[in-house]
Amino acid sequence: MMLLPCKITNFPYFCAMIFQLNDDDCFFPPADRANEDGLLAFGGDLTPERLLTAYANGIFPWFSDGEPILWWSLDPRLIIRPGEMRVSKSLRHTMKSGRFEVRIDTQFREVMLHCAQTPRKDQDGTWIVEEMVEAYCQLHELGMAHSFETYENNELVGGLYGIAIGKAFFGESMFHTVADASKVAFYHLHQFLVQNDFKIIDCQQETSHLKSLGAYTIPRCEFLKEVKEAVAEDSLVGQWGSDNVEPLFLHIKQPEKLHFRVYDTE
Q1: Is residue 1 part of a domain?
Q2: Which contiguous run of DSSP H or E holds residue 151?
Q3: Do 53 and 115 have their domain in common?
Q4: Which contiguous run of DSSP H or E holds residue 209?
Q5: Pairing label, strands 17-20, 39-42
């Protein structure tokens, strides 16, 4: 990809543009300025403040080793609304069998590492690079990132992780080493979010696995509106698998409309 700097003054829409983030602040361009592939910006860092600012504004990082940090906002966006999960007969049977145990926030790093090692269709490597693992583990330590883990005979066999801001949960990745283990983890996440009055689950990219659980796409403009409302509510901060949680209001920075360098990617 060849990057050619372009001078701008009033931040119009560019279908083939990518914005360079400033290193001295955590502001982002508006998510709806992403190009047709969903790519919005590059640069910056993975500090907790920048990550929380990104997710609260409908943006997420996705890059591979050797690449700069790339920031995305896809259109359309895959979501599940709490209360709308599709539970198949086979999954209900698995849940009733008592075969699996589910724990919350006990092995966050291990869940991320398992997700990183899971082969993905049409992907040669993983976007869950070491830098990402350390950044999200820091968010977990701050009580903002969470894992739901499935165990069989006390062995970790499935799970998922994501970030919670306000009443929105931003799912990042899931894995399983035995059938249905990730679906069981998702079921328990879904039930937890319903019980705590969450409004939306961001699933990011469309996959058959997530669609089988009831996920569907909505236009980015609708997604951004719903997320803005959801993140304006108190966040449930702490270790979700314990009583050590408390509501906390997070003041999230809004996107900036100026002061970004813009590059032509054509």
Answers
A1: no
A2: strand 145-152
A3: no
A4: helix 208-211
A5: parallel
Sign of CA dihedral 203, 46, 258, 265: negative
Give the structural domain span for 170. 78-248
CATH of residue 27's domain is: 3.30.70.3550
State residue 2's pLDDT score: 31
Q: What is the pTM of this model?
A: 0.90
For residue 157, pLDDT beyond 70: yes
Instruction: Indicate the range of 1-15, 73-87, 230-244 predicted with least confidence.
Output: 1-15
Give the C-alpha separation, 135 to 47, whole Å: 7
Instruction: Give the confidence band of 8 by pLDDT, cuts at 50, 70, 90.
Output: very low
Enter the tokens of residue 101.
Answer: 């145990």
Same domain, 166 and 242: yes
Is 211 part of any domain? Answer: yes
**Average pLDDT, integer, range 155-175:** 98
Based on the fold, state whether residues 136 and 197 are members of the same structural domain: yes
Q: State phi, psi for 246 to the nearest 5 degrees.
A: -150, 150
In a domain, 24, yes or no: yes
In the chain, how many domains are there?
2
Q: What's the distance, Cα to Cα, between the start and end of the chain in Å?
A: 8
Which of 183, 262, 266 has its CA nearest to residue 12?
262
Pairing of strands 4-6, 261-264: antiparallel
- Are residue 65 and residue 52 in the same domain, yes or no? yes
Q: Is there a domain that residue 266 lies in?
A: no
DSSP string covering 210-262, please? HHTTT-EEE-HHHHHHHHHHHHTSPEEEE-TTSS-EEEE---PPPPPSSS-EE
Note whether 70 and 62 are within 8 A (CB): yes
Q: Distance of CA 248 to CAs 82, 182, 192, Å?
A: 21, 29, 18
